[in-house]
Write a structure and sequence with these properties.
Radius of gyration: 30 Å
Strand content: 25-35%
Number of strands: 32
Helix content: 25-40%
């Protein structure tokens, strides 16, 4: 279980003076510049001499002469209408008239009195209507000044503004005819989308299948953070300088910090045995163990800080797993990946690798597994066996259909092909089948409408194999000549201000890839493919509630019923976006509602739960043949009066993204008591 909220906007009130010397009277004055703060701080001091030591603590009240407390919703969505409550206490200032001013960006404020009469020792409250204009962090400055000008106080607050719908990714491949065929990308591309928060990438590369800009864009914006997804987002970033140069993209100045944060995050999922869990420390998923350890290995090779003990534990875990279970009929994909990671760390047995390649190759039933075995042999210098095994991987890929995949290794036909190509591209000397692999992966990409994080990560690594064709690209970009690949990424508002025109200046046809990530202007209707989802609200007495008109401070039970319409194994993610007028009241239904009123409610045990400020998230691991129904429940409380967008709840297969479903969206009102 995990709770998550918006990052704090107030500065941390924690200061340390360091060691200071006392004067002859045993005194010293230490100054701190405190940020905006009203409350109690604790002062702690430790003093010592060569003969003794002592300490003391004292609580000190820190506050402005007039204390202003602003109460806001934890977030808003564009178009929401809510209330800002201001509680103003004149604790130490002289009585009199004070001017009130509200300065805002990103939100609009309604009418409020511009002058307040404040009596000493008295408290008063007022509410100000507010509405959100655009996504991002909306800032609000509350300024209070005495009529005489002797006293002026400022308080700055911010509130996140989030879209009411999830962004939708679309990808178009546009043919550019020889000698002048052109493409203009302007705001019409986003006519049915919300410009605010939208992004567009445009790329003209040697192969449209390996469109690096759009892959980086969509992978980087995936909003969840399990071990696999964190690794998939960060793994290509280890080589992003090389990829950016290939695609004509600028360097990312925050790259090193982002990769290091990903390393630290996945290490938080490592158990004491060295294994990794999907959502927290756990064991039993050897493929995931190998995948994360592969990322950590590559990160160390690139000079990132990977703790030695954590790395040794991860490698020892793989060695122990292989010693315990090498059943190729059931776990060939896991065994192959573990062998590859150990070989990359010079801890595999060349004898074992040759044995598997010579006598057990048919047992490795995925192209990626065979490619990993081939790459392991190449790392030990056995290039002849490596080349033969890579050829076997390609043959298997061409004979495999999508229905043959069991999802325990997070894979797909495209992922296996891309991984096969990526591993071959890293091998020296290059296997003879690399050109055929490129053609195979390009064809698989053309057929794939949806991609998972696994697909995108390995496609980016596979893009390193594309070396030919750059010299033949000549373009005119916004009227200026451009030689070589072209890529750019702009926001929706930037595109509105500066459209992009790309024209083909060669005698050969070219392809441009245009990818958009934008929230639709009109919410999508209820529906889906492969799943059904239903969301119902109940009062605490067990009766069904009309949530479109909620009462402030009243609690409701949210019940989500899901059904998977096939018996495939899957990793299911449920995401219920909250309206801004509701807050999750308590992460535990047992302690926040009377279950005796819900005798029919039998919740499904989830692999992971998150209770965020703006959404409820649950994840399930479903094995083949398991019950296809899920039931979830949690409690919300109506908080700030106003009118709010009520987003849809959704369910998706994280590794078959074509299968998802959503409820209807709408509006709701929270009425004041």
């Amino acid at each position: 279980m995990q709770t998550s909220g918006s990052p704090p906007t107030e500065k941390l009130v924690a200061f340390f003076s360091g060691i200071v010397k006392l004067d002859a009277e045993g005194k010293v004055v230490i100054d701190f510049d405190l940020p905006q703060f009203n409350g109690t701080v604790r002062v702690m001091a430790v003093a010592w001499t060569k003969d003794g030591v002592g300490h003391a603590t004292s609580d000190v009240i820190v506050r402005d002469p007039v204390v202003v407390t602003a109460s806001l919703p934890r977030f808003l969505t564009p178009g929401d209408k809510a209330e800002l409550r201001l509680d103003i206490a004149n604790t130490d200032a002289p009585a009199g008239d004070y001017r009130l001013t509200l300065e805002s960006s990103g939100i609009d404020t309604g009418n409020y009195p511009d002058t307040l009469r404040l009596e000493t020792g008295k408290r008063q409250s007022l509410t100000v209507p507010i509405s959100a204009r655009q996504t991002g962090n909306a800032d609000l400055t509350i300024r209070l000044a005495s009529a005489t000008g002797d006293l002026s106080l400022d308080q700055a607050v911010s509130i996140p503004v989030r879209p009411a719908v999830f962004p939708v990714t679309t990808r178009q491949v546009v043919k550019l005819a020889p000698n002048g065929g052109s493409l203009k990308i302007d705001n019409q591309l986003l006519a049915a989308s919300i410009l605010d928060g939208a992004f567009v990438s445009v790329g003209v590369l040697p192969s449209s299948a390996f469109d690096i800009p759009s892959l980086l864009l969509t992978l980087d914006r995936y909003p969840y953070g399990c071990a696999e997804q964190t690794t998939s987002r960060a793994l290509p970033l280890l080589y992003v300088s090389e990829l950016s140069k290939k695609a004509g993209l600028p360097e990312d100045p925050d790259l090193h910090e982002r990769v290091q944060q990903a390393i630290d995050r996945v290490l938080n999922y490592q158990s004491t045995t060295g294994s990794f869990g999907l959502w927290g420390p756990a064991s039993g998923d050897m493929w995931l163990d190998a995948y994360v350890t592969d990322f950590l290995t590559r990160a160390r090779e690139q000079g990132y800080n990977v703790p030695r003990e954590a790395m040794l534990q991860a490698l020892n875990n793989l060695q122990n797993s292989l010693a315990y279970d090498v059943d190729l009929s059931e776990r060939s994909t896991e065994v192959a990946y573990a062998l590859y990671v150990l070989a990359r760390n010079h801890k595999a047995s060349i004898g074992d690798l040759r044995y598997y390649a010579d006598t057990q190759l048919a047992q490795f039933n995925s192209p990626m597994a065979r490619a990993q075995l081939a790459a392991s042999l190449a790392l030990y210098g056995d290039t002849q066996r490596a080349d033969t095994t890579f050829s076997s991987a390609l043959s298997l890929a061409m004979d495999t259909t999508e229905d043959d995949y069991y999802r325990s290794d997070y894979g797909s036909k495209l992922r296996d092909g891309a991984a096969m190509l990526a591993l071959a591209a890293e091998t020296t000397p290059s296997p003879s089948v690399v050109p055929a692999m490129i053609r195979y992966v390009a064809a698989a990409r053309a057929k794939a409408r949806w991609m998972s994080t696994q697909d995108e990560a390995w496609m980016l690594l596979a893009a390193r194999a594309i070396k030919e064709g750059k010299e033949g690209i000549k373009l005119n970009v916004n009227g200026s000549p451009h030689d070589g690949p072209f890529s750019t990424r702009v926001s929706g508002n930037e595109l509105l201000a500066s459209p992009i025109t790309v024209a083909n200046a060669t005698p050969n046809p070219l392809e441009a890839v245009v990818t958009t990530v934008a929230a639709p202007a009109q919410p999508l209707p209820a529906g889906g493919n492969g799943f059904e989802i239903e969301r119902t609200y109940y009062n605490l007495d067990g009766s069904e509630a009309n949530i479109t008109e909620a009462r402030q401070n009243q609690r409701y039970v949210v019940v989500l019923k899901l059904k998977q319409l096939n018996d495939w194994p899957s990793r299911v993610l449920v995401n219920d976006l909250l309206p801004a007028g509701l807050e999750i009241d308590n992460p535990s239904l047992v302690s926040s509602a009377d279950l005796s009123n819900f005798p029919w409610l039998a919740q499904t045990e989830a692999a992971h739960l998150e209770f965020r400020d703006d959404r409820f998230i649950a994840a399930f691991n479903r094995d083949q043949g398991a019950d296809a129904s899920f039931t979830l429940a949690y409690v919300v409380r109506a908080v700030t009066p106003g009118n709010y967008a009520h987003p849809a709840a959704s369910v998706e297969d994280m590794y078959r993204p074509e299968f998802s479903a959503r409820t209807a969206s709408g509006m709701m009102e929270v009425k004041a008591q």
